[in-house]
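Input/output pair, single chain:
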Amino acid sequence: MADYELGTPGRSAPATPGTPTPLISSMRVDSLSYDRKSMPRCKCLPIDAPTWGAPHTCFTDFSAPDISLTRKLGAEFVGTFILIFAATAGPIVNQKYSGAETLIGNAACAGLAVMIVILSTGHISGAHLNPSLTIAFAALRHFPWTQVPAYIAAQVSASICASFALKGVFHPFMSGGVTVPSVGTGQAFALEFLITFNLLFVVTAVATDTRAVGELAGIAVGATVMLNILVAGPSSGGSMNPVRTLGPAVAAGNYKSIWIYLVAPTLGALAGAAIYTLVKLRGEDEIDAPPRQVRSFRR
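Output:
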């Protein structure tokens, strides 16, 4: 992203009538920082109306490339396949080799997979990888509803393909990759709701606010996934994602309490995204603040 910083202080005098516009402006290009007050706002993708009574908000502060829906869906399919394959393989290997992975290994498999997929495909599809995230972003007008069915179809099909690939490789140990609760239904529901709330709070911060961690978005989201699995993995499986549960459930034929993993993450995602949208700083909150150096990861 090219960022801009005003080269001279103060307001310049108006141009003399008839004076040609210079080919090179007085603005200095800096790839790491910009003055937010001098940065011209651009047309953003894909929001056209205010959210929660706030001013017009964007996915990013810079123009998004024109990427076809086919390319986005292809990146989303591959990214979700990688995530489900890695996140499900960890518990399967743990089962097959008598705890060789451990809980920390399972958490690392999922967190590292999320991180590398965001860093490699985030600029193409946004790297949602999660129907709950896609629905939450659409509900808060960070993503067009017209693309939601196609994104969810890509995520679900990728999850099923990855799960059957794992079944072929690790048979008969597929059951180890299915997320099923080891606690009561209410406790599992609450855990999945809360950890998905945590995840979407972080994702919304790094995806919709350029004052957040920017290029470190992949690391921030991956670390959140790891933390959530360390907390909830032994109890609910730490799914946070309907397709993390759906694909392995189909491959293993185990649908125990599957409704929890479809409903709780979606509600938690909506709540987490909405709360960050409510608490984040608005443009008017920064009027008297000095210019800050920021980095932006999302397109």
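The beta strands are 3-5, 28-30. The longest strand covers residues 3-5.
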